[in-house]
Write a structure and sequence with these properties.
Helix content is about 40%, strand content about 20%. By secondary structure, it is of the alpha+beta class. The protein has three domains: about 100 residues; about 300 residues, Rossmann fold, CATH 3.40.50; about 230 residues.
Length: about 750
């Protein structure tokens, strides 16, 4: 059996169980047989078909039962089929007896586990505790003129998820609103009406869209099961087409218009978007949104990632072309290189009410990645970033299921005057494992005074049930416009984030001591140039075992790159013809940009030893940036490159890289060319002749000595020699404390903080 067939069978089985479960709940308020009554029938397929057809025709929820009936009627008549259906019914009966499981989206969790092709959709679904934390902070911090004690007032809110999956974020939002309603009603001495809140939210407030009809059906069931005794007339949940003859792009079509008109659906009929609770196929006209919450698809078309990977290969090119056309023609502030997430955020921004709130789960690269610049521009120009949350839990850098990519939770309010407003930055040492823990964390964040990063002391801890979950700090981004958004979230320890803030201002700060010195820095692009990308090298050269004039420094194996002085380890030959579907690069032009200083494109902080090396002769590389100091004098250029390599391998130089790193997957971090061009380095030109000579002596002392892996930085005698020399050059105290704090960071040690 192929993996595709197995996935189909699993999802089909889950769809049947979901229909059975919904039948059991409906039987409590309508003339429908219970599951136990149904399984007594001799013709089990026929009896389930009769019950589900009755529900579909007389009660509705047609998409849920229509799909289930279609699956049911394809099953062969056999004892094995009856046995399988009885086992599924037994499971549904057990689940229906656990109302807590229904409220916590058990079926959605199972669906996420079964969807083996998630990476092709970019469909990594939000963890329940993460969704609870995000929406609790969003709803409790919502200060519009809403009478939270009045169900009709609450029902006028419009809350949407343009990539809702099985509805985890919408359901978390519904729970947070219900909690606030109950709290506000009690505080005003009136009776809470959670049933009416549930009905008004489902019928009027919640809007959800996805390209997977199976996910939408589960979302409809999960949201209805939040309070299954309440019958609702309608839901605004829609399965939208992706691909097909009209090359539809799901929710991206909202870039064209708020109303999605009649079109071809996923199941092939020439009808409109599929509504989740009725058999009607109608146009979906999206109102101005008070809250938009999303964990949008992140797929990209680089490094083997597949944009629209779930679509047959023959259709992908057309969809990608149409996506590019929409982004260009509609002037969306998005960069497709960052992936579909950037496009979804740009569309969501246009759907917002003038004072709307975004509650987002995004790759952590949004905070610093160059391809996410248009998205950060949207945020900085139109929104106040209220909360930014990152995980430093070495077992869980992510807030989504089935991925280990680093992510962040963001809450942004549109239309607020940002002057003097601070952002709360939450660095989690441990992610909440349950919704109860998430609620406790949200309450701590709401009631505590965060530590000011621009002060000289102070740490605000998040504690719940006797455990420390992290620390909270705050900083005004509108006042500190030159501070990278990733800096306050770059380290788990507030002390390190504060040191990073001071360093970004050209000041050296040590916890417990205060400011101990200043440092003069300059943009790397002002003093050095970086050579070609590894992808360009592959388009101009091939590896060869025969020595040639084209030397290469290939790969970054941790155990083979431990010293500052390194040697080329490969040779290259110019290509004579282009590789398939590629353009042939000019080998002479590429070689003219070779260099002797090599800066890493990426690092594994948990295993690598060095952050820069120097070669005795120029070379090109696939995973290093060949770098040349800007000088016409070879002797000066080589000397400055040695000194720059020393800077990057000092603890303060490494720290300056890490405090604004582009984090991909915990300890796996990237440093693109545009990042290096903007990064601030020690201004070597400002040093005296004596200071430069001190660095030259340092190079002779340490260049051929092994450095320990970064996690052992506290015990690295060679690193200490480098650090002490820079302390003397900069006239500052020893940096042992910085090495100690860095060695404790989970992103380096891969151990949790305690």
């Amino acid at each position: 059996m192929s993996s595709t067939d197995l996935r189909i069978y699993r999802v089909a089985s889950l769809t049947l169980v979901n229909a059975m479960l919904f039948q059991e709940l409906i039987s409590q308020r309508a003339k429908v047989k219970t599951l136990r009554e149904t399984v007594e029938a001799s013709d089990l397929v026929g009896e389930f078909n009769n019950q589900w057809k009755y529900i579909e025709n007389e009660i509705d929820f047609a998409p849920i039962f229509k799909v289930a009936r279609e699956i049911l009627l394809t099953l062969p008549a056999s004892p094995e089929t009856d046995m399988a259906l009885r086992r599924l019914a037994d499971s549904a009966i057990r689940i229906s007896g656990n109302r807590a499981a229904l409220r916590h989206d058990l079926m959605g969790r199972i669906f996420h586990k079964l969807l083996a092709d998630a990476k092709f959709y970019g469909a990594f679904y939000t963890k329940i505790p993460a969704a609870t934390l995000l929406l609790k902070l969003t709803i409790d911090g919502y200060d519009w003129p809403i009478d939270w004690a009045d169900p009709s007032s609450v029902g006028r809110l419009h809350i949407a998820d343009l990539a809702c999956g099985t509805g985890t974020l919408l359901k978390a939002g519904m729970a947070a609103i219900e909690d606030r309603h109950i709290r506000e009603a009690i505080s005003h001495g009136i009776s809470a009406q959670p049933d009416e809140i549930h009905r008004n939210l489902i019928e009027n407030s919640l809007w959800g869209f996805d390209v997977l009809s199976s996910a939408i059906h589960l979302a409809a069931a999960a949201i209805a099961m939040h309070n299954p005794k309440i019958a609702v007339k309608a839901m605004h949940l829609y399965a939208l087409p992706l691909g097909g003859p009209s090359q539809k792009l799901g929710s991206i079509e909202f870039a064209q218009s708020r109303k999605l008109h009649v079109q071809r659906t996923l199941i092939g009929a020439s009808i409109g978007p599929e509504e989740a609770t009725t058999r009607k196929k109608v146009g979906a006209s999206l109102p101005a949104l008070d809250i938009c919450t999303m964990n949008p698809p992140f797929t990209r078309s680089v490094y083997g990632n597949l944009l629209f990977g779930a679509i047959p290969e023959a259709e992908r090119g057309g969809l990608q072309a149409r996506l590019q056309d929409i982004v260009k023609c509609k002037e969306l502030e998005a960069n497709i290189t960052a992936g579909l997430g950037s496009v979804f955020v740009a569309i969501a921004d246009r759907m917002m009410a003038k004072n709307g709130t975004l509650a987002l789960v995004l790759p952590k690269a949004v905070l610093a990645g160059s391809s996410w610049t248009p998205t950060r521009t949207i945020f900085s120009e139109r929104y106040h970033l209220q909360y930014a949350i990152c995980s430093h839990d070495p077992d869980s850098w992510n807030f989504s299921e089935s991925t280990d990519l680093s992510e962040t939770l963001l809450v942004l309010r549109k239309g607020l005057s940002k002057k003097s407003l601070s952002t709360k930055f939450i660095n989690l040492w441990y992610q909440p494992r349950t919704s109860v823990e998430a609620l406790a964390i949200a309450e701590e964040v709401r009631r505590k005074q965060p530590a000011d990063l621009d002060s000289t002391a102070g740490t605000c801890e998040i504690r719940a049930n006797g455990r420390k979950f992290g620390e909270i700090s705050q900083l005004s981004l509108s006042t500190n416009t030159n501070v990278s958004w990733t800096l306050p979230l770059s380290f788990a320890q507030t002390d390190l984030c504060r040191m990073a803030y001071y360093l970004s201002q050209g000041r050296i700060f040590l916890p417990g001591t205060g400011q101990v010195g200043t440092i003069r820095t300059t943009r790397l692009a002002d003093v050095a140039t970086l050579g070609p990308d590894g992808r360009d090298i592959y388009d101009g050269f091939c590896l060869t075992n025969t020595p040639t004039v084209y030397a290469a420094f290939w790969g970054h194996e941790a155990e083979s790159v431990q010293r500052l002085a390194a040697q080329p380890n490969q040779y290259l030959n110019p290509l004579t013809e282009a590789l398939p579907r590629r353009h042939l690069r000019d080998a002479n032009l590429l070689w003219s940009r070779a260099g002797t200083l090599m800066l890493p494109k990426e690092l594994w902080l948990s295993t690598n030893h060095v952050a820069a090396v120097v070669l005795p002769r120029p070379a090109l590389s696939n995973v290093w940036w060949p770098t040349r100091w800007i000088s016409e004098v070879d002797e000066e250029r080589f000397a400055m490159e040695h000194r720059l390599a020393l800077w990057f391998n000092s603890t303060i130089g490494l720290f300056s890289m890490l405090m604004q790193r582009q984090e991909t997957r915990g300890p796996w971090v990237k440093f693109p060319k545009v990042w290096y061009e903007e990064v601030e380095v020690l201004d070597l030109n400002s040093l005296t002749k004596g200071q430069l000579e001190m660095l030259d002596h340092l190079w002779l002392e340490v260049s051929d000595r092994n450095l320990l892996p970064f996690p052992q930085i506290i015990n690295d005698e060679t690193r200490k020699i480098i650090d002490d020399a820079f302390s003397d050059v900069l006239k500052i105290p020893r940096l042992d404390l910085l090495r100690t704090l860095l060695s404790q960071e989970p992103v380096i040690s891969m151990q949790p903080l305690t």
